[in-house]
Amino acid sequence: MTIWNLGSINADLVYRVPHLPAPGETLSATAREVWLGGKGANMSVAAARAGAHVRHVGAVGRDGAWMVERLLEYGVDTRGIATRDGASGHAVIAVDPAGENLILLHPGANREVSGETVAAALEEAAPGDSFLFQNETSAQEEGAAAAAARGLRVVHAAAPFEAEAVRAVLPHLDLLVLNAVEAAQLEAATGRDLSDLTVADIVVTLGSEGCRWIATARGEVVTIPALPVTPVDTTGAGDTFTGYLVAGLDRGMPMRQALGLATRAAALMVTRAGTADVIPDLAEVQAMRLG
Fold first, then answer.
1. 274: annotated binding-site residue?
2. Residue 116 annotated as binding?
3. Which stretch of DSSP H or E encloses residue 201?
4. Which of 142, 161, 191, 218 is spaced 20 to 30 A from 232 at the CA atom?
5. Among 129, 201, 239, 250, the one annotated catalytic
6. Crossing angle, helix 65-73 and helix 39-49, to 10 degrees?
7. CA atoms of 227 and 130, how far apart (whole Å)
C-alpha cells in the first residue's frame, strides 16, 4: 500500500539557547544548525523509515531543491512536490538544555499547494492506501475530500491547531491525531467530548505520559504509557510518532500494536538532536533497549 502525505517541507534553523526566551528578551544562542524539517517532511521520512511506501505531495521554493533531494535520499517518493517562485517554508527553533522548544514558522511555498496538484497526485491512489495531512499546507479540505472519495484511510495530524481547519475536515477523517492541548481546544471549539466526534479513531499524545487512543465506535479508551528515556530534543518527536503510527497501520498492524511501535520510535527520537535527518529507522526502533 502507499501513504500519500500532503505535507509541509521546511528548512529548520535550530538555535541552542540557555533557556527559552521571555517576551522582549534578547538571548545569545550557543549553537546553530540547519536541518530538513516541516511536519509533513518529518512524517514522510518517519513513515518511509518505518518501512512504508510514501508519496509526498507539497511544494518548495526555488531555494528548496536540497530539501527535495534529501527526502529522496531518505526513501520518499518526491514526484508530487512542485517548485514555486517564492521562498520555501522555514522554521526558527529555539531548544533549551532540557530539550523543550519554541518554534516560529514561515509557511512559504507550503501555502501554495493547489487542489488541482493534490487531485492529480491522488489519481494514482487506490482504495486501502492512506492519506495523511497536517495544518501547514493549503488544499487540505480538497485533499481530504478527494482521498475519502477514493476509499483511502484519511489521517489528520491537527497541528498547528486551528479549530475551523479541523472542523472543515472532520467529516472526511478516519483517524485524528492531536496533543493534549489541541484536544482541549477542539473540545472547547466544538462543545463536544472527543468521544462524541464522528471520527472512528482519535489518538491524543501526552508527551512523557504516553498517549490515549479513543475508539469512538466501541466507546473504548486505551492508554499507552511512554517509555523511560532522558530527552535531548523534543523537536519532531510527535511527527515521528504519527509517521510510524500511519506506517504501522499501512502494514496491517492492529491499532494497539501500531501505537506501541510509534511510542518506541518517538522515545528514541527525543534522545537525538535534530529533526527529519535523525529520525530513527525501523531496525533501530526494534533494537531499542530500555533502562
1. yes
2. no
3. strand 201-205
4. 161
5. 239
6. 20
7. 27
Print the SS3 string covering 249-278: HHCCCCHHHHHHHHHHHHHHHCCCCCCHHH
Which letter does DSSP use for residue 117 in this model? H
Q: For each of the chain's 291 residues, which pLDDT tens digit applies?
A: 999 999 999 998 989 999 999 999 999 999 999 889 999 999 999 999 999 999 999 999 999 999 999 999 999 999 999 999 999 999 898 989 987 888 888 999 999 999 999 999 999 999 999 999 999 999 999 999 999 999 999 999 999 999 999 999 999 999 999 999 999 999 999 999 999 999 999 999 999 899 999 999 889 999 999 999 998 888 889 999 999 999 999 999 999 999 999 999 999 999 998 889 999 999 999 998 765
**244: helix, coil or strand?**
helix
Torsion of CA 140, 279, 273, 80, to 10 degrees: -40
Which three cell numbers mark 217? 465506535
Whether residue 235 is annotated as binding a ligand: the answer is yes
CATH 3.40.1190.20 for the 2-287 domain, yes or no = yes
**All cell numbers assigned to 30:** 550557543
The CA dihedral of 52, 58, 62, 67, to the nearest 10 degrees, is -20
Q: Consult the annotation and say whether 233 binds a ligand.
A: yes
- Flag whether 269 is marked binding: yes
